[in-house]
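Suppose a colleague, Dr. K., hands you the sequence of a protein chain of 68 amino acids and asks what its three-dimensional shape might be. Before reaching for any lab equipment, you can write down a predicted structure in C-alpha cell form. Begin with the sequence itself:
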Amino acid sequence: FNECFDKSKYESQIREDMAEGDKLGVNGTPAFFIDGRPLVGAQPEKNFDDIIDDELAAKGGQKQASAH
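The predicted structure, expressed as C-alpha cells, is then:
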C-alpha cells in the first residue's frame, strides 16, 4: 500500500473517478442513484423507500418498497 501510495500509482484512475463523481453531482460518500435520482450521504431507510415508491408509482407499479 505505502509503495503504491508514495509513487501515486493509481492517481490517474482516482482523478478520473473523482471527475466522474463531480459530473454526476456526487459530493460525498456514500452516494446512491435510484433510477438516476441521487441520494448522497448517510440517509435513513425512509428516504430510500420514498424514492423507490415514487419511481414505482411513476412507472405504474403498485409495490411498496420495503427493506424488511
